[in-house]
Amino acid sequence: MPRYTPGPWKMRPNGELWSYRRGANPSQIGTMSWTGAADERDGNARIIAGSVDLSESMEELMLIVCQPEVVAAIQGCDRISAKSRMIIENARTTLEEVTGRKLPEWPKRDPHDTRLETT
After folding, report:
1. Which of the residues 40, 53, 90, 105 could staple to 36 if both were Cys, CB 3.0 to 4.6 A apart?
2. How far is CA 68 from CA 88, 100, 107, 116, in A?
3. From what superkingdom does this record's organism come (predicted)?
């Protein structure tokens, strides 16, 4: 499975991309160079820098929405069920693209993810 440098990431104005991994010293992980308007470069830098946190948040969200009590609540409420399913499917598809892993369709959960299991 592809891996990435832990975040959070920050893009410096000179194009350097740095990892500010929690509990570790900052380290430079790359340099970005592109042309275009300054506001586009700044926007692109923010998207790249935020991608790690976004991916990790989506993984946590998928873990939560696959819990039996959350599945029951979503499926039991006609008002939110269809929209919730669409959002969850979009998140699942995006995570598959980002991580390179095949994820189960909702409401199934990844059987290898034991983060919320009790002992």
Report:
1. 40
2. 15, 26, 8, 12
3. Bacteria
